[in-house]
Amino acid sequence: MINDRPTRLIVNLDALLRNYEKLNNLSDKKVGLAIVKANSYGLGSKVISKLLYENGVRHFAVATFEEALELKEVIKESLILVLGVTNPKNVKYAVENNISLTCPSKEWLEEAIKELDSITGKLKVHVKIETGMNRIGTFEEKEILEIDELLDYPKVEFEGVFSHYSNADGENNDYDDYQTANFNRLVALFKHKPRYVHIENSAGTVKYNDRDDNYNLSRIGISLYGCYPSKNIEKLNKLELEPVASLVSKVTHVKRIPKGTKVGYGISYETSEDEYIATVPIGYADGLLRRAQGFKLNVAGEECEIVGRVCMDQLMVRCSEKIKMGDDVLVFGEYNNQKISVDEFADYQKTISYEIFCCINQRVPRKYYLNNTEL
């Protein structure tokens, strides 16, 4: 396949493996469950999951049943949990493919059991407990006791019980403590005992690595990909994460334009003097959105501000006369001894690194490097 455009997303697999090892080693009581949902936050779940699997990782989670089926091609003998709600009519395929499903309610489990009556094998479930996120799961004691009774059904395996912190990346731990107390109280209602008990996301994994609790799984998401969930987590100084993704391109055109010249759609920028303008082949169709206007990219080691509105496929930057066609452009990450934090790029746009990664369109080729060699 010909890749004519120089825009690409570089994924450092060595850094990813080291991040997993660091996060997994934070606690000797908990196993790190790799979150590879949403195509590994846009970085490429098949490549990343296969690499982790080949390096001994056996616990994964995705958002949808379709994602789980796709990844079963490369991570056959492992736990793979669907965190979202799966249609109960598809439990047959979950059993056939050894995929674990989230049980969000008694009603869901009742419908799933109806489907299990006609098939052989066991369905592995993780019961979702609502503790304060108010997304999916149950918080009613009566319903939990009824779910516990349904777990007597011989074709259901109570593999796990879990919840999700909603503010673990914040400065204050009060809401975490509230959710933890709710979780412990509701989990204690089950007479059946699951293999896995988990509540920690990336922030919780770092923040509570030395906490005395009965949990044995921690869900590693954004931190696996080299980002701290927040500055509050970073300043705990419990580990040093390595950037995994770098968005890069090259200059395709440079011109000198006179003072008073308008640039871009909506003529939102006008030169204040004679200026050099360079064009870079990346735009909002690639995931670099219009709100990035004004951010400074690194062009051949020079800070160059995005001027004019970001176009669908290209953008323009103000540069010096030294910049020439073919010069390297760094949007975020690390490249050619230059560095721009993805968090800095996200902060400028009043968003988070998660969204930045997930927005990168599939037309941007992913280039994977392992042992400093492109795969």
Automatic annotation (TrEMBL):
It comes from the Bacteria. InterPro entries: Ala_racemase (IPR000821), Ala_racemase/Decarboxylase_C (IPR009006), Ala_racemase_C (IPR011079), Ala_racemase_N (IPR001608), PLP-binding_barrel (IPR029066). PANTHER family: ALANINE RACEMASE (PTHR30511), ALANINE RACEMASE, CATABOLIC-RELATED (PTHR30511:SF0). Substrate binds at R135, M312. Belongs to the alanine racemase family. It is an enzyme of class 5 (isomerase). The gene is alr. This is Alanine racemase. Pathway: Amino-acid biosynthesis; D-alanine biosynthesis; D-alanine from L-alanine: step 1/1. The lineage of its organism: Bacteria, Bacillati, Bacillota, Bacilli, Bacillales. Keywords: Isomerase, Pyridoxal phosphate. It catalyses: L-alanine = D-alanine.
